[in-house]
Amino acid sequence: MNSTADGSGGCAGVMFDFSGTLFRVEPATSWLGAVLDAAGIALPGAEFARCAERLEAAGALPGGPPPRTVPEELRELWAVRDRSAAEHRAAYTGAARQVPLPHPDLYDALYERHMAPGAWQPYPDASEVLRELGERGVPVAVVSNIGWDLRPVFRAHGLDAAVHTYVLSYEHGVQKPDARLFRIACDKLGLAPERVLMVGDDERADGGAARLGCAFHAVRHLPVAERPNGLRPVLGRVG
């Protein structure tokens, strides 16, 4: 899906997803390595690689690949993990605990690490696109399924000035694709849904905005180096 709700362009406001759209989280090897270094724990190369691979396969890195399988005991929680901070932490630390690590404190440390601004890198064209939207007077909302406050990430990377408002699932107890979250964002932008473009990498979750009447523009959730220009087409969809 990569079209407006009525097949035309010219939207007056934009909603962006966070992970896989504006930013990409660090690889599992960097994520695990940063936590082990901070704890003063060294693992042999083969063991380190195996742990990182298993954590990634378990879906334990928020913003990383989804789990290959969700354990039965986590399925109910996993489905609603973005409704609250507590559910988000419990789901992801629960996924990480499927992988044996050398100290029990590492599971919470891994969760804390993924919230650090240094764990995230903006896509190459994110700053340019957000800046130009701001110069055009186009209001921007960040609408994310998430369990923690991502505002410090935007501030640390110098992208916060271009964001008019943040609508985060855990702050409202509602997660995408529920149209209520997109409605909140449209209201904060002061625009009817039909005048707002939603940009995201998940056609199910982010594409839910289309059911409200918003336009939708899909981007691919790729490593930063592999998607240098994925956001620039958005500029042609607004104005």
Radius of gyration: 18 Å
Fourth CATH level, the homologous superfamily of the largest domain? HAD superfamily/HAD-like
CATH class of the largest domain: Alpha Beta
Biggest beta sheet summary: 5 strands, parallel
Proportion of residues in helical segments: 25-40%
Overall structural class, as computed from helix and strand content, comes to alpha/beta
Chain-averaged pLDDT: 95
Looking at the structure, the CATH topology of the largest domain is Rossmann fold
What separation lies between the terminal Cα atoms? 21 Å
Low-confidence stretches: 1-8
GO molecular function: hydrolase activity
Protein name: HAD-IA family hydrolase
Organism: Streptomyces boncukensis
Keywords: Hydrolase
Describe it:
The N terminus is likely disordered. The protein has nine helices and seven strands; from the N terminus they run ββαααααβαβαβααββ. The longest helix is centred in the N-terminal third of the chain and has 13 residues. Helix content is 35%, strand content 12%. By secondary structure, it is α/β, with parallel strands linked by helices. This is HAD-IA family hydrolase. Keywords: Hydrolase.
Brief summary:
With 239 residues, the protein is of the alpha/beta class.
Blueprint (SSEs and pairs):
Elements: E1 13-16, E2 23-25, H1 28-39, H2 45-57, H3 75-79, H4 85-96, H5 106-114, E3 120-122, H6 126-136, E4 140-144, H7 151-156, E5 165-168, H8 169-172, H9 179-189, E6 196-200, E7 215-218
Parallel strand pairs: 1-4, 1-6, 4-5, 6-7
Antiparallel strand pairs: 2-3
InterPro entries: HAD-like_sf, HAD-SF_hydro_IA, HAD_sf
GO molecular function: hydrolase activity
Protein name: HAD-IA family hydrolase
